[in-house]
Design goal:
Layout: E1 4-5, E2 23-24, E3 27-32, E4 41-44, E5 50-53, E6 61-62, E7 71-75, E8 90-95, E9 102-111, E10 120-127, E11 136-142, E12 151-156, E13 171-174, E14 180-183, E15 204-205, H1 206-212, E16 217-225, E17 232-240, E18 245-248
Parallel strand pairs: 5-18
Antiparallel strand pairs: 1-7, 2-3, 3-4, 6-9, 7-8, 8-17, 9-16, 10-13, 10-17, 11-12, 11-16, 12-14, 14-15, 17-18
Length: about 350
């Protein structure tokens, strides 16, 4: 059926009701597995259900960063078009050159600890100038909710996780919540200034961030294919969070209504990742970021950026929306509420 693109910005759109939850042993199931391309099996996890995301991308929105040629859409052109149990389509991210950026985001409000057992996504590399690069999952966080000083973005990339497969033209499941993450900013007790953006051992488990800052909150979710990824044509699907798994589809599959908020509008994207927020945004070009320059997993021998000029300016760190259109928890299977004006 081809590619359907949407650039949402801050336009209001009616979001989708969460549908099609997979129930295992009385609880919803998340799609998890290893970093290999083996078929994925459902296992119990604290996830409400499945939310189908159509080509309008709601409840996500494309980030406000100038894409400079990067594109975001939903299509069924990959082979296969989606991961196992992922339906008939997927999110498609394309960055034709090193200046391109392709990312979608939505507001969140949850404790970081809730993401350890739930954060996961499936990814596919269709083409790439750098064979090691795949889209990343990012969590915009506030590690000091009582002040304005706690903003940072945590990034999960397969390249920094030794067990993650990166074979092209195959779907891989990344259990991000159990993996290693980088931070764009220093975080007291876990990331110092020399470790920003994956430098000098700056890949940490989410449990390490929580241990250092027990009050740390997630304020946004970003699916990102950042600058520094020339020629990367990739797919993402089955993005799992503490409250739902997002399944990207061209049309809403038939099935009963499941927990969710049909009146939800897409949120204003959270503070955008910026040029140094992982997934190749701050990777050097050419041989420094080529196949031979990336050892398998971790950050051993991986050349790190000096981050000069890449940290977003203070003005780029947009405050989070006041829960306007914020993703709401499921309603336990009750009849969806009557939407105002409907």
């Amino acid at each position: 059926m081809g590619l359907h693109r949407a650039t949402l910005g801050r336009r209001g759109m009616v979001a989708l009701a969460a549908t099609g939850a997979l129930i295992v042993g009385g609880g919803a199931a998340a799609m998890v597995g290893t970093g290999s391309a083996e078929p994925l099996l459902p296992v119990p996890a604290p996830v409400v259900g499945t939310t189908h995301v159509l080509p309008d991308l709601a409840p996500f929105a494309q980030t406000d960063d100038d894409p400079k040629g990067g594109t975001v859409g939903v299509d069924d052109d990959l082979t296969p078009p989606a991961p196992p149990l992922g339906g008939d389509a997927a999110l498609r991210l394309e960055t034709p050159d090193g200046d391109g950026k392709a990312a979608i985001a939505k507001a969140e409000d949850s404790a970081l600890g809730e993401w350890i057992a739930t954060a996961a996504y499936s990814a596919y590399q269709n083409a790439a100038d750098n064979a090691d690069q795949f889209p990343s999952m990012q969590l915009v966080i506030d590690y000091d909710p009582d002040s304005s000083a706690g903003f940072s973005t945590l990034t999960y990339e397969p390249i920094y996780n030794a067990g993650d497969s990166r074979t092209p033209n195959a779907w891989h499941r990344y259990e991000a919540g159990m993996g290693r993450w980088c931070s764009t900013r220093a975080i007291p007790g876990v990331i110092d200034e020399s470790q920003r953006s994956c430098s000098n051992g700056g890949t940490k488990l989410l449990s390490e961030f929580v241990a250092a800052q027990p009050g740390i909150r997630v304020t946004g979710l970003v699916i990102n294919q950042g600058r520094g990824n020339p020629g990367l044509d990739a797919g993402v699907d089955l993005v799992s969070t503490p409250t739902t798994t997002y399944d990207f589809e061209l049309t809403k599959p038939a099935g009963p209504e499941m927990p969710g908020n049909p009146c939800e509008e897409p949120t204003t994207p959270p503070a955008h990742p910026g040029d140094d927020h992982g997934n190749g945004d701050d990777h050097p070009q050419g041989g420094d970021n080529g196949n031979s320059g990336h050892p398998e997993g971790g950050d051993n021998g991986h050349e790190k950026p000096d981050n000069g000029g890449h940290e977003p300016s203070h003005g780029d760190e947009h405050p989070q929306p006041d829960n306007g259109g914020h993703e709401q928890p499921g309603d336990g299977g009750h009849e969806p509420p009557h939407c105002p004006g409907s």
